[in-house]
Amino acid sequence: MTQETFNTKQENIRDFCIIAHIDHGKSTLADRFLEMTGTIDKRHMQEQTLDSMELEREKGITIKLKAVRMEYKGYQLNLIDTPGHVDFSYEVSRSLAACEGAVLVVDATQGIQAQTVSNVYKALDANLTIIPVINKVDLPAADVARVKLDMITTFGFSADEILSVSAKTGEGVEALLEEIIKKVPAPRGDSQAITRGLIFDSFFDEYLGVVAVIKIVDGTFTQKAFMQRKKVLFMATHETASPEEIGVLKPQRQKVTELKTGEVGYIATGLKSISAVKVGDTVCIDGEVCEQLPGYKEVKPFVFVSIYPIDNSKFPQLREALQKLSLSDSSLSFEPETNTALGFGFRCGFLGLLHADIIQERLEREYNLELISTTPTVEYHVLLTSGEMLYVRTPSNLPDRSRIEEILEPRILMNIISPSEYVGEIISLCEERRGIQRKMEYPNEKSIAFEYEMPLAELVYNFFDDLKRISSGFASLDYDFLDYREVDAVKLDILVHNEIVDPLSHIVIKSKSFEIGKALLKKLKDVIPRQQFQVSLQAAIGGKIVAREDISALRKDVLAKMSGGHRERKDKLLGEQKKGKERMKRIGKVEIPQEAFRQILGS
After folding, report:
1. Main-chain dihedrals φ then ψ at residue 521, nearest 5 degrees
2. Average pLDDT of span 108-131
3. How many CB atoms lie within 10 A of CB 440?
4. How far is residue 439's CA from residue 454's CA, in Å, rounded to a whole number?
5. CA distances from 398 to 97, 408, 581 (A)
């Protein structure tokens, strides 16, 4: 394609994204856009074209955002395909900051869901023009009239601005493209100002190093300037780089000689560390006085999981795999740790539970590793009596109770949308998980919406699975971090034959310690093989035992070979057996098999 194709005036550029709940047809709609604009030849089209990862296709979700440039009737359309899941909400917010408009997609069969509401508010906060769309109108179960009424009631749209489309068949998609050109404003930047761009994504290329995907907010980046040895500066990290090339994504990389105000493209930096280029950062020409764009924040992990290879000789392969994944995912953090029961592994930080699941699945599939992971935990802020603040991510790091002034736990603000018939079960679940109800309302006669404050620790402990179970899979949730608050938490240790098993330790609410300890011990009793001696299982807080289970000893009938004999001979044999059992109980050790850890930690 010739360079002239890209020479579009600023008023003819449209930068927009598609926002939707998971499985509402966002990626399919992007496919139709690519097809109708001729960006990809129909012969090369496949379902979920922009979802290039195998897991994205399998799970039907967008994990990593994608940007693509399309040409349509003299207009340059820059589409940013955003992730829909709450774990990637910061990526979504930065993507929205790179756009002037958003296409809001709602499934005609499912209606408004929790992340629909969340993403609409994010788009409104970013001052975007929203084009409401009802998708999947071709399905027999589609209820367009009801969904349209819900969108009018919930978001205040007028009936005539809501479009009906079928992304699968292409019905109404051309009209939607015309609406995007008509309603989404052109980029507002100043082409004569000092050059600066917003980084909303980055990835690693083994030949070009870190590639920053950017929206040019002001000015122009030119290949000529970089050939004259000018460098770019990343303002948050203070890193400089001499770019290898600049270009656009169609959706494959395509070199260009310049990126102008309002355009979306990439800069291949040549840098070897992904941490040098942060999502949300401002990039400008080194040496020019440039003001940083607002909204940047450091992405911090919310959920922590320890990952160990089942075969400890595979530890180097696990380290190499994590290093490779972190090249394309700057939000993944990891540090080595060791454990007497599980050997060598890594303590990994993730944005949320889905992020953790995705990384673990990629490690197992792409790098052929068999892994065992501990129960997810959150970061507690622990104020010591000395005035020092500790950040505790694992139970083994929690100090002795006598040194602790107070423990603070992270809390979230959670939105749940569900069919109204499950209202009682959802309220019971949230109260059981220490939720505080802020709001409950009925958007329509068939749906109910809740707003709850809840500890993040309760969310990571199977809350989502329980919510799906009690609502038959129909409820959806979305959450945002709220604050840290004081909590009466303690470290619950699990002892097997009087020895603490670190991977099974938990930080729990003191009032629930007996209940959680008893449940863990029952699981443990079922998976630990019986020994030649009685094994005690205990749950303890400090030196105090709060729950106990016993695994009875395997017994051999030592009298089986005696066909007769006096009582004294039998008593002597039984006495010797008893002494042997007591000696084994005193000096014996219990080896917990890896499979037992997998069953306990995986359940």
Report:
1. -65, -35
2. 86
3. 14
4. 13
5. 39, 12, 37
Residue at 300: amino acid letter: K
* 329 and 412 part of one domain: no
List of E strands, 111-238: 129-135, 163-164, 196-205, 209-218, 221-222, 232-234
* CA–CA separation, 316 and 318 (whole Å): 5
Look up the domain containing 360 and give its range. 303-374
Residues 215 and 200: beta-carbon distance below 8 Å: yes
0.85 surpassed by pTM: no
Residues 129 and 218 placed together within one structural domain of the fold: no
Query: Distance between CA 259 and CA 247 in Å, rounded?
Result: 7
What does the CA dihedral 349, 351, 357, 361 come to, rounded to 10 degrees? -70
Check which CATH number belongs to the domain holding 352 and give it. 3.30.70.870
Identify which of 282, 267, 201 has the alpha carbon closest to the alpha carbon of residue 17: 201
| DSSP notation for 57-106 | HHHTS--S-EEEEEEETTEEEEEEE---SGGGHHHHHHHHHT-SEEEEEE
Q: Could you report the per-residue pLDDT of 419-476, keeping only the tens digit for each?
A: 889 999 999 999 999 999 999 988 877 888 899 999 999 988 888 889 988 988 888 8
The verdict on residue 295 lying in a domain is no
Alpha helices in 367-512 (DSSP H): 423-432, 456-460, 463-470
CA distance 72 to 180: 11
> In terms of domains, do 350 and 409 share one?
no
How far is residue 48's CA from residue 400's CA, in Å, rounded to a whole number?
Answer: 52
Nearest to 601 by CA among 332, 341, 391: 341
Cα gap 363→369, rounded to integer Å: 6
Burial annotation 72-83 (CB, 10 A radius, 16+ → b, else e)? beebbbbbbbbb
- Which residue is it, tokens 């395909």? 81
Residue 414: both structure tokens together: 């959670």
